[in-house]
Design a protein that fits this description.
The protein has about 100 residues and is mostly beta strands. It has a domain at about 45-90. The protein contains 1 helix and 8 strands; from the N terminus they run E-E-E-E-E-E-E-E-H. The strands form 3 sheets. A 4-stranded mixed beta sheet has the order 2-1-3-4, with no helix packed on it. Strands 5-8 form a two-stranded antiparallel sheet. A hairpin with a 5-residue loop joins strand 6 (about 50-60) and strand 7. About 5% of the residues are buried.
């Protein structure tokens, strides 16, 4: 199988039956993640598997509870997904992590 990669205007021609991966380079925006399945470049989400969540509470005089703090620990994989077509984009997860501010 052939993979064609295009960056901006200088695109290589894709052969029939090939996969086309588009990486947009913009001097103002940097390298953006674009879903290769639907073209989405705005909405993404990640799912962490096997998460241990600890929440500490204080009980109020009326018997209700108020959370004091939350601690979480991820024990499994963390995957990145397209927010439009729900495609698994975990191959871009490292880039996603680099761009979290």
């Amino acid at each position: 199988m052939t993979v064609a990669i295009s960056k901006g205007k200088n695109s290589q021609k894709a052969k029939p039956g090939s996969i086309h991966i588009h990486t947009q380079v913009n001097p103002h925006l940097g390298r953006r993640i674009i879903c290769p399945h639907c073209g989405n470049e705005w909405n993404f989400y990640q799912i962490a598997e096997e998460v241990k969540l600890t929440t500490r509470y204080v009980q109020n005089a009326d018997g209700s509870f108020t959370p004091l703090s939350d601690d979480s620990r991820i024990l499994g994989e963390v995957k990145l997904y397209c927010g439009e077509c729900q495609a698994d984009l975990s191959e871009f997860h490292n880039r996603f992590l680099e761009m979290l501010f």
